[in-house]
Each structure stands twice: as C-alpha cells, then as structure tokens.
C-alpha cells in the first residue's frame, strides 16, 4: 500500500507505443497490490528537441530527481540525425544518465522456454538461461586518465583505473542482487595480465566475506566470453568492469533471441533508470507492431530494483511468461503456428494476466 511517483519518458519512435503498454500493466499492479502510482511525464531526446529546442533541459532533470524512478522509452531517429553532436537526441540520453549518477548497469538475459525456436543457437545450449550482467559504468578505461595522443601523434593511450571505493560499491551491489537470485556470483577480470584486475579481484574477495551465503567464483574475460556461448546456464550474476561489461552484456543478450524482449537498468545513483535495450526502431514506429515486452520487462525491473517491490515485479514477469505460453506473439517473435497480435493487443493481454 505504497505511494510512488514515477517519471515517464515515452520518447521517440516506438517509445510512446510501448511505454503505454507498460503503464497498462502498472495500473493493474496498482489495483492488485493497492498501490498508488503518480506519473510525471518528462521529455528527453527528439521529443525534447521538438518541444524545447534542446535534447535535455535542467527542468526535466530536476523533475526526474524529485521522483522515485524513471520509466524510459527510447530516443532518436532520422528526423534529428543531422543536428550537431551536442544537440542530438543521444546527447540527452547521455546527459540524463550522467545527472542520475548511476554507477551500475544491469542487463538480464533470460530465455523464455516458449521462444527457443527464435534463437540461432542450439536448444540444448540456451534452454533455461537466466543470467544478469552487472556492469560498472563510471570507471575503468573509458574514463581513466591519462588518455590521449602523444604530441607527435605516433602513439595513443588510455588508462584503466579503478579505485577501491568504486570496486567495493559495485561488488556489494552485485552480491546483494545475487543474494536475491540463485546466490551465485561470477566476477570477470583479466587478473593474469592486468594489475587493475588483480586489485579488482582482491577487493571482490574482501567484500565476499560479508556474503558467506553467496558462492563466488572468478573468471578471466576471454574465458567468460567463451563460456557464455558454450555453457551460459552456469551463470547467475556476472559482475565486471566497464569495458568487459560493455562487451559481455551485448554478447549475453544475443543468446536470447529477440531484441524486443530485453530490458536494462541503470542504478546506484539518486534515481534508477529503466529502459529496453533496443532503440527507437524508426523503421516500425507508428505501425503498431512493436513488441512491448522489453518495455514491460523494464517495468518489472523498475518495481524490483527501483521500488523494491519484489512480489509486484514477479507478478509482471509471470504475466509476460503466461501470455507467451498461451501462444501470443508480436510479429518479431512469431512463427507460423503462433497467434499473432499487435502492440496494443499484447499489452492488453499482459495487463489482464497481471
Ligand atoms: P539505436 O541506435 O538507438 O540502438 P538501432 O537502429 O541501432 O537504434 P533499434 O532501434 O534497436 O536499433 O532497432 C534494431 C532493429 O530491431 C530494427 O529493425 C527494429 O525494428 C527492431 N526492433 C527494435 N526494437 C523492437 C521491438 N520492441 N519490437 C520489434 N522490433 C524491434
Ligand atoms: Mg544500435
């Protein structure tokens, strides 16, 4: 019986179509669990450019920071492609990510039994995959100093840096999440070659002392990349640094089939951001055929990691699974024998299942 305020950012392309379907499910959650959700509609990206002339305003940031979570659609599209870099929709997305101060990106990869035929991988390999990559977002080689080119332009360099505090907080967050799942954490590094990875590994081991109930193992990143395609079922939660996480989270998500099914969260800052991994899909915008499930799975993450409403999150996840089990599919995941539905119909079915 809580009261929550949610920032809603529908965005560009298919964003508005699928965010609406997410909110339908949320309204059913409200009824079923007797919560009240208040919505603050905000604009980032192309929709902000059209309204305010810039991809992100300070007012938008302030509004979002006053709420409990940010439910985010998608930004970008051909309409804004030719603008200068700092005025493009994507600059708005980067800006809001920065303003929220998230240091962790969560990327679940889950295979729905019902959709195994849509993957390019063998059934034996992917059946039962349910893993989550926790990527450190604010440190590592993407931000380390010194960086740049030598004066004579004959050399270029970047530096992988992690502080004790940065490793500690991401490790804690990953252990906390593992504790709520199957209690298995794999820390991925390159400790056989990199000092920064040895440092990472030592701190993760230190933090693990507070989590005796979670099983910890370490894996070199090259092996992890291989294991993800060889035997992905061995993983529950993977925690890793910025660059390794960038690569492994994309790899992991492609195990599961459709891009229209996958959610992500940026957390650890003042307000969590919850969004699908896919973009604004301008090629199908306005046609009413987009798959709303990635957005609805983002809603489940918002409930779980943003508002700590675990039962409610599970209820949404179960609703998605049930509708898939009943054989309903949007066109991106449909095969011949399925019951084909459009965006709204899929959203209605899931809301009803909630
Ligand atoms: P970005 O640069 O924002 O990542 P992109 O063009 O690289 O955008 P997407 O917008 O994710 O990538 O689209 C990639 C392809 O996947 C497109 O053909 C799009 O139609 C399809 N797609 C993406 N999301 C969905 C969805 N929810 N339902 C169905 N198809 C989708
Ligand atoms: Mg892309």
TrEMBL record:
Residues 5-350 form the Isopropylmalate dehydrogenase-like domain. Mg(2+) binds at residues 222, 246, 250. GO terms for cellular component: cytosol. This is 3-isopropylmalate dehydrogenase. The keyword Transcription regulation does not apply. Binds 1 Mg(2+) or Mn(2+) ion per subunit. The lineage of its organism: Bacteria, Pseudomonadati, Campylobacterota, Desulfurellia, Desulfurellales. Catalyzes the oxidation of 3-carboxy-2-hydroxy-4-methylpentanoate (3-isopropylmalate) to 3-carboxy-4-methyl-2-oxopentanoate. The product decarboxylates to 4-methyl-2 oxopentanoate. HAMAP family: LeuB_type1. PROSITE patterns: IDH_IMDH. InterPro entries: IsoCit/isopropylmalate_DH_CS, IsoPropMal-DH-like_dom, Isopropylmalate_DH. One of its GO terms (biological process) is L-leucine biosynthetic process. The record marks 142, 190 as: Important for catalysis. Substrate binds at residues 97, 107, 135, 222. It catalyses: (2R,3S)-3-isopropylmalate + NAD(+) = 4-methyl-2-oxopentanoate + CO2 + NADH. GO terms for molecular function: 3-isopropylmalate dehydrogenase activity; magnesium ion binding; NAD binding. Keywords: Amino-acid biosynthesis, Branched-chain amino acid biosynthesis, Cytoplasm, Leucine biosynthesis, Magnesium, Manganese, Metal-binding, NAD, Oxidoreductase. Pathway: Amino-acid biosynthesis; L-leucine biosynthesis; L-leucine from 3-methyl-2-oxobutanoate: step 3/4. Belongs to the isocitrate and isopropylmalate dehydrogenases family. LeuB type 1 subfamily. Its EC number is 1.1.1.85. NAD(+) binds at residues 77-90, 279-291. Its cofactor is Mg(2+); Mn(2+). It is found in: Cytoplasm. Its main location: cytoplasm.
